[in-house]
Amino acid sequence: MLSLENKKLIFLLNFCLIFLPISLLFSNIISEIIIFLITIIFFLSVKKKDVLKVINNKVVFFLLILTLYFLINYFINFDKNPSITRSLLFIRFPLYVISLSYFLNSGLVNNKKIFYYWGSIVFITCLDLQLQKITGKNILGYEHIAEGSIMRLGGFLNDELKVANFINSFFVISLGAIIYYEKNNNNWILIFLFISTILYSVIITGERANFIALLLFLIGFLIISSLRKYAALMFVTLAILIVFNYSELKKNSMLERMLFQNVNIIKDSLSINHNKDAKSPENKGFLYKNNHYFSHYATAWQIFKDYPVVGVGLKNFRVYCSDAAYLDKVHPSYRNKNCATHPHNLYFEILSELGILGVMIFFSSFVYFFYTCLKRSYEQSNMFLYGNTLFLMTYFIPFLPRGSFFTNWNAIIFWTIFAISYHLLNKKETHA
Q1: Interaxial angle between packed helices 346-380 and 408-425, expressed in degrees from 0 to 180 and rounded to the nearest 10
Q2: In terms of Cα–Cα distance, which of 131, 262, 267 is closest to 207?
Q3: b or e along 386-407 (b: 16 or more beta carbons within 10 Å of the residue's beta carbon)?
C-alpha cells in the first residue's frame, strides 16, 4: 500500500486522475504524460509483494501474452518496417491498467468524486457542442465544419471529428458510477435528463458510428438496470414520435443522416447480393460494395490473404494498401480512395496487420475478459461493471467503422475503461 504520509504523491495521483479527461480534449502529449505518471507512481511507491498480487491474475497474464506477441510480430515483420512505437511501447497500456486499477482499489483516491467529476466534464462538453450548433462557434471560437447540407461539430476538439467517442466513454463511466453509488435511484429523472443530453449531443455531432454504439449500449444497459420500466417508456415514446413525424424528420438533414441513413447503411452492409450493376461482376465477394469503408475492408482482407499468418505488422496497412494488386476486389467508385492510415475496423485492422495468430491471441484475451466481467456483474448485480463491459464490447461490433484501436487517443480512453472494469472485477463488496 502506498504510504499515506507521502502527501505529494497522493496529490499528484489525484490531480492526474482529475485532469485526465481534460487532457484528452486538449493535448495528446499531456494525456500520455498522465498515464506515464500514474504508472511511475505505482512502481515507485508500491511494495514488490503488492505488485505481485496485482499481476497474479489471468487477465493480466493475457495482456502480457498479447504484448509479447506484438514484440514477436515486430521482429518477424522487421523487413516490412512496422511501427516500433506501437509494437514495443504497447506495454505501457497493460502497465497503466495494473496501476490505475490498483489505485482505485487502494482508498488513496475518492473514486466516487473522480467519476462524478468526469461526468461533469462530459456535461460541459455537451453544452459546448450545443452552443456550437446554435451560434456556429463553441466557447473557444472553434467553428462547425460544413459537410454538404449538414454541419459537423467537433467542440473542444475543433476539426477532429471524434468528440462523440469522448462523450460516450466518460458518460458510460459516470452513468455506471451514479447507479452504483446511488442505490435508491431516486434521481431517475435527472439520470434520464443526463442520458437525453448525451443522446442529443452525439446526434448533433454527426458521428454515425458512435451514435450506433451509444444507442446499442443504452438499450443493452437500461433493459437490465433497475431503470428498465422508465427506459421502456422512453424508448416507446421515442419510437411513436419518430413514426408519427417520419416525413418531417426526413426533412432534417442531420436526423436523416443519423437515423435513416444509418438504417440504409446497415442494410447495405449486410446485403450479400449488393452488386446490381449489370457491368459489375458478381463474383467479387461480400466486401465488394459501393461504400467508402468497405473499400478499406476489401483491401485489408486482400492484405490478410497475402500475409495470413502474422500480417504485415502494426501500422503497416497504410503502406500495403496502395498496392495496385488489391484494387480488383474494390468497387470502382473507390479504387483510388481505398487507402488510409488504418482500415477503420478492428477486425480488419488485426487481420491485416497481425495475421491469424494475432486474431487468435487478441480476441481470446478479450473474450475471456468480457466473459469474466459479465459473469461477475451478474453474480454481484453490479451495473457499473456490466455497463463498462457492455460499452467495451461495442468496439467489437462487426463492420462498424472505428478509429484505429492502437491510436494513442483512442487507446487511452479504451484502456481507462478497461482499467476501471478490472478494478471492479477485483473489488471487494464495500464501496471505495
Answers
A1: 20
A2: 262
A3: bbbbbbbbbbebebbbbbbbbb
- What are the distances in angstroms from CA 61 to CA 65, 88, 98, 294? 6, 17, 11, 35
Q: Could you give the CA distance from residue 40 to residue 214 in angstroms, rounded to a whole number? A: 34
Residue 10 φ/ψ, nearest 5 degrees? -65, -40
In this structure, what C-alpha cell is assigned to residue 332?
470502382
Q: Report CA 6 to chain centroid distance, whole Å.
A: 35
Give the pLDDT confidence of 201-240 residue by residue, as tens digits.
Answer: 999 998 989 999 999 999 999 888 877 777 777 777 777 7
Give the up-direction half-sphere exposure of residue 191: CA atoms within 13 A in the CB hemisphere. Answer: 24
Q: For the stretch 68-97, what's the b/e string if a residue is b when 16 or more beta carbons lie within 10 angstroms of its beta carbon? A: ebbeebbebbeeeebbeebbeebbbbbbbb
Q: Residue 198: what are its φ and ψ, rounded to 5°?
A: -65, -50
User: If DSSP codes are grouped into helix, strand and coil, which group holds residue 107?
Assistant: coil
User: Using CA atoms, how far apart are residues 392 and 413, in angstroms rounded to an integer?
Assistant: 10
Tell me the β-bridge partners of 151: 146
**CA-to-CA distance for 214 and 272, rounded, in angstroms?**
27
pLDDT tens track for 156-170:
999 998 999 999 999
Q: How confident is the model at residue 184 (pLDDT cuts 50, 70, 90)?
A: low
pTM, full prediction: 0.91
* Residue linked to cell 462557434: 137
The answer to whether 24 touches 409, Cβ cutoff 8 Å, is yes
In eight-state DSSP terms, residue 338 is -
Q: Which residues contact 260 (CB under 8 A, 6 or more apart)?
A: 249, 250
CA 97 to chain centre: 16
Cα gap 139→154, rounded to integer Å: 12
160 CB burial (10 A radius; 0-12, 13-18, 19+): exposed
End-to-end alpha-carbon separation of the chain, Å?
15
Chain mean position to CA 397: 11
What is the SS3 assignment for 428? coil
- The reported pLDDT for the residue numbered 409 is 94
At 262-297, the pLDDT tens digits run 666 677 676 665 454 444 555 577 888 888 899 999
| pLDDT for residue 368 is more than 70 | yes
Cα–chain center distance at 51: 28
